Amino acid sequence: MGLALVYAFLSGFHTLYDLDMGWHLATGRYVVQHHTIPSTDVLSYTSPGAEWIYPPFAGVLFYGIYSAFGYVGLTWFCALALTALVAWLLRASFSRTLSRTFLGTATIAAAVLAIFAVPLLANRMGPRPDLFTQFFFAIFLVELWRFHHAGAFASEPEHDGETSVPLGTPKRLWILPLIMLFWVNLHPGFIAGLGLLFAYLSMEALEFVFPSRRATALLRLRQAWPALAATVAVTLLNPFGYKIYKAALTLAGLQPTQAGKGPDIWELQPMLITPASLTQAMNWRSPGCSYWWLAAIAVVVIGIALRRRQLGAALLMAVALYGSIQHMRYQGMLAIFVVVLGSTILTEEFQRRRQGDAKISVKPSGVVRWLAIIAACALCLLVGVRMADLISSRADVVEGSAMLFGSGESWWFPERAAAFIQRERLPGNIFQDYNLGGFTAWRLGPAYGDFIDGRNVDPAIWEERWGFISSPPDSPLWEKESDRRGINILFFSLGRFSGGGTPDLMSLCRSHLWRPVYLDEISIVLLRNRPENRPWIDRFEVNCGTHEFVPPANLSRRELSIFYYNSGLPLSSLNRIDEAMEALTRGEAISPDDPLIHRTLASIYEQQKRGGAEQEYRTALSLNKDSAENWSSLGRFYFFHSRFTEARPPIVTAAQLTLYPIDEDILLGYIDLMLHRPESALLDFSKSEELIRRSQGRMKVTPQFFAQIAAGRAQAYLATGQLPLAIEWQQEAVRRMPEDASAWQGLARIYEEAGRPELAEQARQQAQALSQRRRE
Question: What sign does the dihedral 622-628-632-633 (CA atoms) show?
Answer without folding.
Answer: negative
